[in-house]
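Input record (one chain):
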Amino acid sequence: MIFEKVKQMISKEFSVDSMKLSRETRLEEDLNIDSLDAVELVMGLEDAFGVTISDEVAQSFKTLGEITDFVTEKIGA
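The corresponding structure, as predicted from the sequence alone:
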């Protein structure tokens, strides 16, 4: 499942308990992800899922659910 993989990536990258992550978890407010962290996250997502994420799209991500929905749509899962 894509959401589980996204959770694992964020948990590992940002040292967050994956059990505390949900689709509603906000990147900036809940996880304190700054712009540099966001770039690293996007690169990891691109590698993990074989997708390309434009800067505009990456900047629009506010929650884990939005990331999951984007990846799901891109890979047709």
